[in-house]
Predict the structure.
Amino acid sequence: NLTILAVVLVALIAVSLLQKFSHRRATSRPAAASLLTTELDRESLMRIALGFGADSTAVVLERLPDGWVARTAWNMAVSQQRVDDLLKSLGDLAGEYRSGTADVLGDYGLQREQAVSIKLFGQDFQPVLDLLVGKQPMGQVGNFVRRPGDANVYLTRASLLVNLGLYSGPARPATRHFLDLEAYKGVREDV
């Protein structure tokens, strides 16, 4: 009887170790992973397309020789500062792994129909970055993000929605957030 108990005990220990090892391997990720496949060269970017749900071109910003313009607002000039802030946040985008299951994407606000899409295009309008941005975590800074076609969800510390003028969660971006609405530029002393 003692032999049978010893064999059962060894089998239980082996199963426990195997389960622990496979669980650790399935759930362990680096603390922060870069979400960019290549380094983002801001100077070579030619177009930024922002969308929500099925509308992937709610806001289209394009670089012309004179600067950035909003194609979705009759080619009006946009604020260089707002474009720079967005590109800076995207340039060093890293995130903490949260989930890899497609069943819970809705909990993060990352189903295709409930997420904000950000697409960056480089020379010859080749895609450089394609990203979906979801909800902000409760009581924390940042947003949940994922790449389209990938169920891996990351929490980034960058407040991407704020850079898009969205302060209360994912919604359709508005071109007016990016427009340069200065009516007059002048030196204070000249007035």
